[in-house]
Amino acid sequence: MLDTFIQTRSDIAPAFLAALARFDPDRPILVLGHFDADGLSAAAILARSLEQAGKPVEVRITGKGENPWSPALRSELEKRQPGGLIVTDLGVRDGDPLPGTPTILIDHHVPTGVPGQAIVISGNAWNPEPTSALLAYWCAQALGTAQDLLWLAAMGLVGDMAEEAGFAEMTEAQGRYGKTALRKAVSLVNAPRRTASADASAALALLLKCDSPKELLSGDHPELDQLLAAKSEVAAALDGAKRIAPKIRGDVALIRFSSPCQIHPLIAQQWRGRLKDKIVIAANTGYRDGWVHFAARTTTGTDLIRFLATQKPPGAGEEYGSGHSQATGGALRPADWNHFIAGIGFPDEQVPE
Contact, 293 vs 263, CB < 8 A? Predict the structure, then answer.
């Protein structure tokens, strides 16, 4: 594990280049990224820098309920037969996402397992903690093709609320592109993945072809209309859910609602600031058929990864309890949700099985 986990800035460039050297040069590299602003920006940085370095590359962004370790997505990856796989902002778990294919994981979440033979470039537990997009930017610098991609690194920092972490790249990007433009662009790029369709392809398209946040916001590209429509859809869903009062039992506050939009993290974040002495859980029974998705947030200092681990129901899988110590969540089948929610003091919040 120690040989494959890279967690120092000086080791990132040589490790990335050494890992790329293991890829099959006769087949395209596949970049697989998360569909939020940090994951999308990281994927765009990697794709653009690899293309500028003359390496063929394809990009695949995850959708609702997808992760690289699931059988369905693994089957798709096998059919693609990439020359190498780069997975970014999707966690670090047990086993290789695509056994037999050289793989690089670029991520900053708490690892939940040992990823087989993959090389892991991890920002977890750094102080300050670099986001996946900033890690990807440092990797791109190793290829010598990164200067015009600085704004994308900043998009990832803003998207994961790390813009005030003190990184020199953030300061430079704010001076060059403006804080307001970066924040507006991030807000729009984040919107599609929260919609009922969770289709972030328009956001990715803009990040792949624009050269600045101002260009993204300019209206010169038709994809902007899709982002604006997505933002309106999410705002309407959020307006309804934020009126639901929390139920409080002991140290936990629960807000439960049903929406096809991924607004449970936003609701949890909103109540986190108002219930500063509680673990806030926002549960969404309508996001994906057959699942209860939830987000957990707190300002108490409680390690939420550890908290969820102590409450883990027997049927919980990889969708449960990963992320950050102060911002996590998961997805559970109804029977497992019922076990979990009763265990933390809300037996009346069970759902039909």
Answer: no
User: What is the spatial distance between Cα 150 and Cα 180, in angstroms, rounded to a whole number?
Assistant: 16
Task: Report the amino acid identity of residue 196.
Answer: A
User: pLDDT for 120-171, tens place per residue?
Assistant: 999 998 989 999 999 999 999 999 978 899 999 999 999 987 788 889 999 9
For the record, the structure tokens of 300 come out as 């108490």
Q: Which of 235, 158, 240, 229 is nearest to 199 (CA)?
A: 229
The pTM is what?
0.91
Closest among 45, 70, 67, 65 to 147, alpha carbons compared: 45
- What lies within 8 Å, CB to CB, of 261 at 6+ separation is 194, 195, 196, 233, 234, 237, 238, 287
Contacts of 347 (CB under 8 A, 6+ apart): 341
Place of tokens 């009922």: 196
